[in-house]
Design brief:
The chain has 411 residues and is of the alpha/beta class. It is built from 14 helices and 15 strands. The chain is globular. Bound molecules: pyridoxal-5'-phosphate. Pyridoxal-5'-phosphate binds next to α4. GO terms for molecular function: L-alanine:2-oxoglutarate aminotransferase activity; pyridoxal phosphate binding.
């Protein structure tokens, strides 16, 4: 027999020490274990419309299929010309001056672009202001790139608006950038024009770059208007706007997102050179999906039918919000947009010490998966996020399961 020799344990890199992404973490592993045992699990942990009966606009699918034969090769690393033109024109139409195809990067979803931008931008020890709660890729990607995510508070008692004083109090000489997520995941808050202006003013005053994640820009309720941060950043604040097809066009699986760079680009030439290097190193984004971008941004916007009374996104969101508030000891701010509810469990009623354990308990007892609030870098174990994508009937049944489970936990 051959001597196997010393067996070396292969460990993950130290770079991952502070990196978490709980939405698909141990809670999902446990859900998959239960599925393997034969249980049917209702998964309300991921904002992915397709499994809940949402279909992409037909023209988008048709466009991709049409272009498949000619999409076999790599494209330009920044993206195909028609997609970048469409994105540039989209922002020009919204009042952004001085933007061109050169300022647009197409990526495999916003996710890839967030990671690339932070790798290109962050030096070890740089502090980046990230909202709490946040979409956890932001915190994870800052840590992975050697930076320090510094969380600023979004205030639940004030409609989950960012606390401007808290932001200012956390700015140090190491602070380099401010992340804004509007409309917000997980809270569903949509920021007023004044609030966006105030956030930009803080960035201006402290010479911060703004990363504005606007992937839910078209999912806003009650006739609210979404305000692009870049519209107020002017010529003197560098603003990187992220958006894409995943949510508004219901094609998360196509992996199509974009980055629009605006403001004093002449001061950012070195950074942009670094970003271009990283874009080159990964060749290009998925080419067939890039062809869908021009079609998506032009023409009829079917998302508009989903966000008004009678439309599925609106009705489901409002149903979830109302039913959650009917549960004793549960309170939920009314979502103004996006695809989630982020309810609070009164700690006097539900003395939960570990919210991930709470989620796993709910999963095992009720075969329903939500995500714990600390997974969104919320500091207390007293929230969870529910995806509001199932139809009203399924959502009602899911919230009944939550209510039943909570009844067993009441102090
Ligand atoms: N940003 C936010 C706030 C999100 O909620 C998500 C996905 O849920 C993303 C970015 C990533 O989107 P994409 O599918 O474009 O990678």
């Amino acid at each position: 027999m051959c001597d196997p020799g010393p067996v070396r344990e292969i460990r993950q890199s130290d770079k991952l020490k502070n990196v978490r992404y709980d939405v698909r973490g141990p809670i999902l592993v446990e859900a998959q274990r239960l599925e393997a045992e034969g249980h049917r699990i209702l998964k309300l942990n991921i904002g992915n419309p397709a499994p809940f009966g949402f279909e992409a606009p037909e023209a988008i699918v048709a466009d991709m299929v049409h272009h498949l034969p000619e999409a076999q090769g790599y494209s330009d690393s920044q993206g195909i010309y028609s997609a970048r033109t469409a994105v540039a024109q989209y922002y020009q139409g919204r009042g952004l001056r001085d933007t061109s195809v050169e300022d647009v990067f197409i990526g495999n979803g916003v996710s890839e672009l967030i990671s690339m931008v932070l790798q290109a931008f962050v030096d070890d020890g740089n502090e980046i202001l990230v909202p709490a709660p946040d979409y956890p890729l932001w915190t994870g990607a800052v840590s992975l790139s050697g930076g320090v995510p510094v969380h600023y508070l979004c205030d639940e008692s004030n409609g989950w608006q960012p606390d401007l004083e808290d932001i200012e109090s956390k700015i140090t000489e190491n602070t380099q950038a401010l992340v804004i997520i509007n409309p917000n995941n997980p809270t569903g808050a949509v920021y007023s024009e004044q609030l966006v202006r105030d956030l930009v003013e803080i960035a201006r005053k402290h010479d911060l770059v703004i990363f504005s994640d606007e992937i839910y820009e078209k999912i806003v309720f009650d006739g609210l208007q979404h305000h692009h941060t870049a519209s107020f950043a002017g010529d003197d604040v560098l603003c990187l706007t992220f958006s894409g097809l995943s949510k508004a066009y219901r094609v998360c699986g196509y992996r199509a997102g974009w980055l629009m760079i605006s403001g004093p680009k002449h001061l950012a030439e070195d950074f942009l050179e670094g970003l271009t290097l990283l874009a080159n190193m990964r060749m290009c984004a998925n080419v067939p999906a890039q062809h869908a971008i021009q079609t998506a941004l032009g023409g009829y916007q079917s998302i508009d039918d989903l966000i008004v009374p009678g439309g599925r996104f609106y009705e489901q969101s409002m149903t979830a919000y109302k039913l959650l508030n009917d549960i004793p000891g549960v309170s939920c701010e009314r979502p103004q947009g996006a695809l989630y509810c982020f309810p609070r469990l009164d700690p006097d009623v539900y003395p939960i010490e570990d919210d991930e354990e709470f989620v796993i308990g709910l999963l095992r007892a009720k075969k329903l998966l939500v995500t714990h609030g600390t997974g969104f870098n919320w500091p207390e174990p007293d929230h969870f996020r529910l995806v509001t994508l199932p139809d009203v009937e399924m959502l009602t049944e899911a919230i009944e399961r939550i209510a039943d489970h909570l009844a067993t936990l009441r102090a």
